[in-house]
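Handout, section B. The chain below has 190 residues.
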Amino acid sequence: MRLVGRNYRMVVLTAPWFAAVAGFMAGLQPAGVEWRWFSFHPLLMTLGFVGMMANGVMVKKLGGYTNTKIHAKLSLAGMFMALGGLYVIYTNKEWYGRKHFTSVHSKAGMLVLIGCVLVGTAGTVFLHPDWGVSKYNQTIRFWHKWLARAVVLLGWCTCFAGLQQICYDNMFMAFYGLPLLALVPVTVVP
């Protein structure tokens, strides 16, 4: 689904704001807790996967040299935010002496982050419009596009699954999850 004109601007401008608000509110879960070091984990993951990477996908769908470069910058910013989220949760678990990578959420998160780094590195090395060594290779472009979309979608599912572990408010879960479903047609679907 291609976004054009006013609809495009609305979605592209709304996604980062939604990500910031939802990520901040996710950091305050379960309800009643104060902002703490852990709170940066859901904030950074939501900003990275929803605010930056989703916008990167939507901008790339517009095509062209400038949009491709904006896509790369947004996607890499999202990847670094997500890596920051990993740092936060890793140090938080170290602080409290908890084991790492024991839940499905944490294992899926690690898989998604590895996928982010691999897809981002491949895009930068092979497909960058200025220096990509295989920027015209349609096979690499195909796999980059589809693996990146899978990583973003799995990232959203992982964010939602992590929130389910700490949030018991169905209204907030709907506030967080329904916009993600609404973004699927304009990001993951061609």
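Note. Helices lie at 5-26, 40-61, 65-96, 104-127, 138-166, 170-187. Compare this with the example in section A.
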